[in-house]
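agent: user wants the full assembly modeled, not chains individually. Plan: 1) parse entity lines 2) check alphabet per entity 3) run joint structure prediction 4) return tokens. Steps 1-2 passed, two entities, 280 residues total. Proceeding.
--- entities ---
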Amino acid sequence: MAAIKPRISVEYTGNATIVTFTDEKILEEKDIQALQESIMSVVESAGGGINLILDFCNVRFLSSAVLGLLIRISKRVYQHEGQLRLCNINPKIYEIFKITRLTKIFDIYKDLESATADLSEAG
Amino acid sequence: MVLETPSSYSVVVESRPSAIGEVCRQILSKLQGNSFSEDDIFAVHLALEEAFINAVTHGNKMDPSKEVRIDYSVGADKVEISIADQGEGFDPQQVPDPRVGENLYKPDGRGLLLINSYMDVVKYNEKGNRVYMVRYKEKPELKTDIINRMNRGANNK
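--- prediction returned ---
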């Protein structure tokens, strides 16, 4: 596992790139900006067809600015003909996704195992 | 339009997104002290962050010469918060629904929806530069509610 910046850890498996948010709370604009730079560089360095999984296992609180970050990441991933999946979102945060109807545009999985289950084709 | 003004505590902070941190800690600590649930605390935390960011970015437009005033009171059964900026105000009715059409794919515009979803009362002053929000403490489910729900379930079969 390689630490890219303090806010995320990145793990490369055979067919997926797993980015885990390391902070419990993601709120501040400068943190979100740092996250964006880190994750975008992961997407860019992977080239085309990245299978990116964002793991929220450590995250207990986030604001709507993080939702904006996720949308920007998803657009970049899809530009590169990749796939984006989210996993390990705790129930309180999942409620935010439901209220904003972002459950309709993000592929959300219960855990990392299910998120990586059928990713053998691309990568 | 007359607004209720929670007057127990009043804090003025600068127009910087992180300036809410200390006030937020104080309010959430008082909620814990008054036995508000984890869901209540999460809801108030989120609404507070969203309303403050709106005040700083949309209201005061990050102008360092402008300030944000936060009034709040935490009681046994409810928390009241008002957040006022020194901007020109806005009409909340004109804010597009972020859940509809192309808006769903836009990176911003979800703050008001979350505030409205997580707080029980949300009102703006006429100018639109001050929001007043209330969250009532979650009540434990009464036995009669459980019985009524079971009866409704039985009737539906």
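agent: reporting back. The interface with chain B takes residues 27-29, 61, 63-65, 67-69, 71-72, 75, 92, 96, 99-102, 104-105 of chain A (CB under 8 Å). The CA atoms of residues 80 and 119 of chain A lie 16 Å apart.
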